[in-house]
Amino acid sequence: MDGSLPMDSFKFYIVQDALYLKDFAKAILLISSKARSEEERDAFLSHVINISKVEDKLHTFFLKRWGIRLEEQEMSPVNKAYTTFLLSVAYSGSYPEALSTILPCYWVYMHIGKLLYKKGSPVEEYNRWISTYGGKEYEKGVKWLIGLVDNIEASRLEETKITENFRLATIYEYLFWDSAFRRETFPFRVKI
């Protein structure tokens, strides 16, 4: 890792991530309404607050620095498909099914953050991102969610759906990162 990620790809990624997090926070709020206890519900609400305090703040910093107005941006095709999937399962799926759709995002970011944190980057913007996801505080929240999913009771039918949802969300994570690197857009403008 030498910091050679094209800055235009990083900018595109930040825009897409900022758009993604708006729907991701909605999915977490829907999931919190299905929580088995007040403690779990409150933990999810805390995650939504953290998104607002930490991740939104990070994106706002970058967008302001680059002169990008988020409200003028459109979701990439993969981002739109991914968030539609998350919201659909959060709304209509069981609690375990919904948890399985959000876990890959947390887990992937923790893993990548930790890998990059060890090496750092000569690029200031990249280091700012790395420090957000490579730290112990973020890891603590992810490990809580992993423990929750590991210990949740589910029917045999739910277990199949949980596995499928987890796999699909993980694939969407890969596609999201790849799409951002390639700066993929719809062939036609979607916003009117």
Automatic annotation (TrEMBL):
UniProt cross-references to Pfam families, sorted A to Z: TENA_THI-4
Coiled coil feature spans: none
Stored CDD domains: TenA_C-like
Signal peptide positions on this chain: none
Every copy of the Thiaminase-2/PQQC domain together lies at 2-182
Q: Which Gene3D superfamilies match?
A: Heme oxygenase-like
One GO cellular component, as annotated: cytosol
Q: Which PANTHER family match?
A: BIFUNCTIONAL TH2 PROTEIN, SI:CH1073-67J19.1-RELATED
Q: What name goes with this protein? A: Thiaminase II
Q: Which organism is it from?
A: Candidatus Marsarchaeota G1 archaeon OSP_B
